[in-house]
Design goal:
By secondary structure, the protein is α/β, with parallel strands linked by helices. It contains 16 helices and twelve strands. The strands form two sheets. It has a six-stranded parallel sheet, with helices on both faces.
Length: 420
């Protein structure tokens, strides 16, 4: 943990640290490569927030059999040089020039390979922003603007990726075409609820199941304002058949929830996994989890008797209305603070497994029954901070930020109630 928590948060600190360790991609890559044999040297492409860690494990297993590798990950996620690998850090959640540069390097490496060549494709969440080559007629600024609009209106990740696929020349199965006729062995760390393969990092090496009609329904739903040239690009369908890819999918928010439950149990709490598909607006999730905490602490729900731990996993969304700073997990925590006000022996935390919640240096937030009062003493209203989407600065004032640094994994988020 990057920051030391106060005494009442010690159990939460243990659960956070050990649960994240449990879903690091090391074991997933080792399992996927355990019985895999390659007759020649291989090329390795690692894309996403967990790319460096996945590449490091791949290197430890294959060593000199790697001819060349490229890592494309988020700023601050490269933890050192890896032999035979070139690393590029780029923008997330908004792609930038380095996204284009890193993608170009990857394409240059795989183009011209033959059917005798093998590519190991290590893919994790965040790849939709990091891995980018706009289709003809679309610019990087177009993709940045569309992404900004989608994020601000609170669109879900699968909705955003349905649009992204059609504006990109590497998403929606198109990267597999660049690699053909070379064979791809894809090891994919899931950050999508339900593990929809074509939605993880927008499915660069997967047949697309979404349609143009769906993309236009999403545009209408959120009232997105897009130029005519962007709308033309969205009318182009994506590949429906790919035959040069073998996929191994691993890691999920389900495993994250199970790990949190196991470590809560070891600390003396009776664990209950409420859901692994939480996908509503963040502040509403906070209100709901607070109501569960209150029912448990006041003995109104006989299935939840203290000491208990209630766990919900998934990925919520934030509808941006203000000009503050924060992320979905910080909004959940701050929203819950109002609902658990004055509850004794209740702590609630919400974290992102990758260690970065929204465009901040925090993994999430942690609150207790005294948080709302502590904020008021600082002249801060929970409701006003939420209205301005400024959960970061509110929680920062009272020691309610969770900072882990980049973790090397990415399997969605968990929200946990600890009720003694």
């Amino acid at each position: 943990m990057g920051t030391k928590m106060r005494k009442e948060y010690r159990d939460a600190e243990v659960i956070i640290r050990r649960s994240i360790e449990a879903v690091l991609p090391d074991n997933a890559v080792r399992t996927a490569l355990k019985d895999k044999r390659f007759l020649k040297d291989v090329y390795v492409v690692a894309v996403g927030k967990a790319a460096w860690k996945m590449a490091q494990t791949c290197q430890q297993i294959l060593g000199g059999q790697i001819r060349r590798g490229i890592i494309l990950t988020k700023y601050g996620h490269v933890k050192g040089e890896l032999d035979r690998f070139e690393a590029v850090e780029a923008g997330h959640p908004i792609p930038d020039e380095n996204s284009i540069l890193g993608t170009r390097k990857i394409i240059d490496m795989v183009k011209g390979l033959t059917k005798e060549d093998d590519i190991i494709f290590l893919l994790s969440g965040g790849g939709s922003a990091l891995f980018e080559k706009p289709v003809e007629g679309i610019s990087l600024s177009d993709i940045q603007e569309v992404t900004q609009q989608c994020l601000r209106c609170g669109a879900g990740i699968t909705e955003i990726n349905t649009i992204r696929k059609r504006l990109s020349d590497v998403k929606g199965g198109k990267f597999a075409a660049y690699c053909a006729p070379a064979r791809i062995y894809a090891i994919i760390l899931s950050d999508i609820i339900g593990d929809k393969l074509d939605m993880i990092a927008s499915g660069p090496a997967c047949e697309d199941t979404s349609t143009c009609e769906e993309a236009f329904r999403i545009i209408d739903k959120y009232g997105l304002q897009l130029g005519e040239h962007v709308l033309r690009a969205l009318r182009r369908e994506t590949p429906r058949k790919i035959d040069n890819v073998e996929t191994y999918i691993t890691g999920s928010v389900t495993e994250f929830c199970k790990a949190a439950a196991q470590y809560a149990l070891e600390l003396g709490y009776s664990p209950y996994v409420l859901s692994n598909t939480l996908d509503c607006e963040a502040r509403e999730a906070g209100k709901f989890m607070a109501s569960v905490a209150r029912a448990a602490s006041e003995g109104r729900d006989y299935s939840l008797k203290p000491p208990c731990a209630v766990i919900a996993g998934g990925e919520t969304v934030v509808r941006i209305r203000g000009k503050g700073s924060g992320g979905r997990n910080q909004e959940i925590a701050l929203s819950a603070a109002q609902g658990i006000r004055n509850l004794k022996n209740v702590v609630l935390f919400s974290i992102s497994s990758d260690g970065t919640d929204g465009p901040t240096d925090a993994a999430g937030g942690i609150v207790s029954g005294t948080t709302a009062e502590e904020l008021e003493k600082e002249g801060i209203s929970c409701e006003e901070a939420l209205r301005d989407n400024d959960s970061y600065h509110a929680l920062e004032r009272i020691g309610g930020l969770i900072k882990t640094g980049a973790t090397g994994t990415n399997v969605n988020d968990i929200t946990v109630i600890l009720c003694r």
